[in-house]
Predict the structure.
Amino acid sequence: MLRNVILGAAVFSIVCIPIARADDAKNAQTPAADAKGKQANDPGANQSITLEKFLNKLHAGNQKEIELGKLAQEKGQSQEVKDYGKTLVQDHQNADKQVMDLAKAQNIQLMDPKQWEAQHKKDAEANKDQNTRSDHADKHEDAQAKLSGLSGAEFDKEFVTCMVKDHSKTLDLLDKARTDSQLAPAKDLAEKLRGPIQKHTQNAERMASNMGIQIPGTTKSARANTDQDADSQRNANPNASQNQNSTNSPSQQAK
């Protein structure tokens, strides 16, 4: 009797262990499968872009930001919005010159911004699922039409909201040049343009916060890069953080 019980237990163990291991292996594969599924459901996750389209998007975006900057100087109620508009014009004029210089060096004929917007809108209508998410030029056109009909505090709030969203999208576009092999010739340009665009985003965020405007989920790239800049400054001057720690240490201990 005892012998039969022992043999039965041994058989049970042999049968169950492989099953448990199979279940563990299946569970271990689940996160990867889930991640793959999420990428498949996000058509813009790793979407590549040609150099010609990249430069045309930047060119059209720069021209629209210049127009919106001029509009802010004309219709903005607060001096801060007017000053922001002036900076917007200057920085995007400088950025667009660099975009056009690179396009010329790469033998790329940039489209007229209005023609680009029309073509971009046509592409979006032809394939809304993929293109509506990145319909940058069309959003600029809508924003300009809306802002032209506003004035005073209403204009300021709508303008600042537009600036946070637009510059956040531009940051995402510039970040493509860091990883997309097709955009290798534009990598240096993207790095140069990112600093001013990031500042525009951060200043717009600050104004939005002061106005009580909440714009969730639009500035992840700007904030991430801010942390990178802080790390770069600390790496460039490692003694600074040590000196600060030694200076603050006595007071912190006193507390």
In short: DSSP finds ten helices and no strands in the chain. The radius of gyration is 27 Å. The first helix runs from residue 2 to 41.
